[in-house]
C-alpha cells in the first residue's frame, strides 16, 4: 500500500506525515489493519527495539477535585464511587511505589487530583520524591499535579523529579466541550513550563470522548509541536457517574489505528498505552505492543487494571522484553540534544506551537489506504458495545489497607 510505504519511510526518517496521511490511517479498513500495525511496528522497532517500559501510578490524592473535566471520575460533582482520600504521606507513597518497582516498573508517576498544586503541595510532593529516590536507586519519577504556577516546575526538578505529565487530552477546538474550568491554553502553558524547567515533558490524549478523526489528528499534531518525550494515549473509561458515561465509542481495531497514527506522527517518542487498555483493546492488547513502547503496570488512578503478572506474561508471550533501569528509553538523538519530535530540521510541525494537557491522565495527498485518500467517503466505525462489566473501581493499593496490584 502506497500510504503505508510512505508512512514507514517517513517514520524511519523522523519526518512528519501530512494530515491527510494521518487521517488515512484512521480510515483504514479492518482488512488493512494488520498491514498498518506491521508498518507502524517497524517504526517502533527502529527507535525502541522490542523493549517495553513499565510505569507505575501512585494516586497521591484521590477525588474531590474542583475542576469539571467530563471524562474524569474525580471531577466536581462526580457520582462515581471511587476512593476519596487526601495526600498520602511520603512513606505511604514510597511503599506503594516500591511495589510497582518490585514488579518491574522503572518510572513512578505521582499523581494528585486538583486544579494545580499550592506551594505547600509542592513541598509535600518534593518530600515524597526524595523518599522514593532515597530508597530506590535509578528510579525515574514523574509528577502529575495539574496546572503549574511560575517556579513550581523548577522546584520539582530540584527535588529530583525527572518528568512532568500534563495531557492536552483533545483538540483545541473541542476542549471547551470537555472542560470549562480551565482552558486548552492553560494546559499548553504547563507543558511548556515543565519543558522550560528541564523536566522531561509527558503529554498525551484521551480517545473515545466523541471526537472526530480530525480532532484526534489535531491533538497529536499539537503534541508533536510541543515536543514531549512521552505521549500517553488514554482510551476513555466511561465511568458511571460522569457526563461521558454513555460514550462507548471504541473498538479494539479503532484503538490500534489510533496508536498507529500516533506512532507515525511521533515516531521516536515514547508512546504509552494508558488508561482503558484492558477495557477497549481487550484480547488485542499484545498487538498494541507493536505500536506503543510503554504501558502502565497494574492499576490506574481510580480503576483497576489487569493483574501486574498478566501484564508481564503478555509482554513475554508477545516476544517483547521489559526495559531495565539501566537502559535508556529514548533514542540517542533525543537524549543527546533533547531535540524531540517537534523539532527536527525540516519537519513540518503542522500545528501551532501553542497547543495544551490534564492530570489524571499524509504523504503526498491521494495516497489513502486504497490510493485515494480524500476521495472515498470516510469509513464508518462499527458501533461499540458498552462493556461496563470490564470497568472496576480501584479498591486496593494506595489509600487502602490492601496490597497494591503490581
Ligand atoms: S482531570 Fe485532573 S483537573 Fe480534571 S477533574 Fe480530574 S483530577 Fe481534576
Topology diagram in text:
Layout: H1 2-13, H2 19-26, H3 33-48, E1 51-61, H4 90-102, E2 107-112, H5 119-135, E3 140-144, H6 152-159, E4 163-165, H7 175-178, H8 184-196, E5 200-202, E6 205-207, H9 213-226, E7 230-235, H10 252-265, E8 270-273, H11 277-281, H12 285-288, E9 294-296, H13 308-317, E10 321-322, H14 332-337
Helix pairs in contact: 1-3, 2-9, 2-10, 3-10, 4-5, 5-6, 9-10
The structure holds iron/sulfur cluster.
The site of iron/sulfur cluster (SF4) has 12 residues, from loops.
Brief overview:
The protein has 406 residues and is α/β, with parallel strands linked by helices.
Overview of this protein structure:
The chain is of the alpha/beta class and 406 residues long. It has one domain (2-390): Aldolase class I (TIM Barrel). Helix content is 35%, strand content 11%. The protein contains 14 helices and 10 strands. Strands 1, 2, 3, 4, 5, 6, 7, 8, 9 and 10 form a 10-stranded parallel sheet that branches. α4 links the parallel β1 and β2 (107-112). The chain starts with a helix and ends in a 69-residue tail after the last helix. It binds iron/sulfur cluster. The site of iron/sulfur cluster (SF4) has 12 residues, from loops.
Q: What small molecules does the structure contain?
A: iron/sulfur cluster
CATH homologous superfamily caption: Aldolase class I
**Computed structural class:** alpha/beta
Report the principal-axis shape. globular
Average pLDDT number: 90
Q: How big a fraction of the residues is strand?
A: 5-15%
The description of the largest β-sheet is: 10 strands, parallel
Number of helices: 14
Distance between the termini: 41 Å
Low-confidence stretches: 339-376
CATH T-level topology: TIM Barrel
Function: Catalyzes the conversion of dethiobiotin (DTB) to biotin by the insertion of a sulfur atom into dethiobiotin via a radical-based mechanism.
Family: Belongs to the radical SAM superfamily. Biotin synthase family.
Binding site for [4Fe-4S] cluster: 65, 69, 72
Organism: Streptomyces tauricus
Amino acid at each position: 500500500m502506497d500510504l503505508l510505504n510512505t508512512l514507514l519511510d517517513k517514520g524511519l526518517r523522523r519526518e512528519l506525515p501530512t494530515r491527510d496521511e494521518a487521517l488515512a490511517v484512521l480510515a483504514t479498513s479492518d482488512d488493512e489493519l494488520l498491514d498498518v500495525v506491521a508498518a507502524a511496528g517497524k517504526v517502533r522497532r527502529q527507535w525502541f527495539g522490542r523493549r517495553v517500559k513499565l510505569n507505575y501510578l501512585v494516586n497521591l490524592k484521590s477525588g474531590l477535585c474542583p475542576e469539571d473535566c467530563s471524562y474524569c471520575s474525580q471531577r466536581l460533582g462526580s457520582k462515581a464511587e471511587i476512593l476519596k482520600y487526601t495526600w498520602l504521606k511520603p512513606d505511604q507513597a514510597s511503599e506503594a511505589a516500591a511495589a510497582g518497582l518490585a514488579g518491574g516498573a522503572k518510572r513512578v508517576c505521582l499523581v494528585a487530583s486538583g486544579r494545580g498544586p499550592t506551594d505547600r503541595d509542592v513541598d509535600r510532593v518534593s518530600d515524597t520524591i526524595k523518599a522514593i529516590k532515597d530508597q530506590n536507586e535509578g528510579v525515574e519519577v514523574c509528577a502529575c499535579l495539574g496546572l503549574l504556577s511560575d517556579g513550581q516546575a523548577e522546584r520539582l526538578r530540584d527535588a529530583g523529579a525527572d518528568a512532568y505529565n500534563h495531557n492536552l487530552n483533545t483538540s483545541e477546538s473541542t476542549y471547551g466541550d470537555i472542560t470549562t474550568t480551565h482552558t486548552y491554553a492553560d494546559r499548553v502553558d504547563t507543558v511548556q513550563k515543565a519543558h522550560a524547567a528541564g523536566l522531561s515533558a509527558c503529554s498525551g490524549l484521551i480517545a473515545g470522548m466523541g471526537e472526530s478523526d480530525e480532532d484526534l489528528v489535531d491533538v497529536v499534531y499539537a503534541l508533536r509541536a510541543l515536543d514531549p518525550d512521552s505521549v500517553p494515549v488514554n482510551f476513555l473509561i466511561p465511568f458511571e457517574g460522569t457526563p461521558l458515561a454513555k460514550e462507548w465509542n471504541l473498538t479494539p481495531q479503532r484503538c490500534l489505528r489510533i496508536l498507529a497514527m500516533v506512532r507515525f506522527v511521533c515516531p521516536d517518542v515514547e508512546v504509552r498505552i494508558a488508561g482503558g487498555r484492558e477495557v477497549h483493546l481487550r484480547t488485542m492488547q499484545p498487538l498494541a505492543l507493536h505500536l506503543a513502547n510503554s504501558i502502565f503496570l497494574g492499576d490506574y488512578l481510580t480503576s483497576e487494571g489487569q493483574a501486574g503478572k498478566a501484564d508481564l506474561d503478555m509482554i513475554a508471550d508477545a516476544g517483547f522484553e521489559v526495559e531495565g533501569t539501566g537502559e535508556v528509553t529514548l533514542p540517542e538523538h533525543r537524549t543527546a540534544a533533547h531535540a524531540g519530535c517537534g523539532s527536527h530540521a525540516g519537519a513540518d510541525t503542522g500545528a501551532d506551537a501553542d497547543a495544551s494537557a490534564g492530570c489524571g491522565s499524509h504523504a503526498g495527498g491521494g495516497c489513502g489506504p486504497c490510493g485515494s485518500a480524500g476521495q472515498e467517503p470516510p469509513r464508518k466505525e462499527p458501533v461499540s458495545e458498552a462493556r461496563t462489566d470490564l470497568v472496576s473501581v480501584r479498591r486496593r493499593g494506595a489509600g487502602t489497607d490492601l496490597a497494591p496490584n503490581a
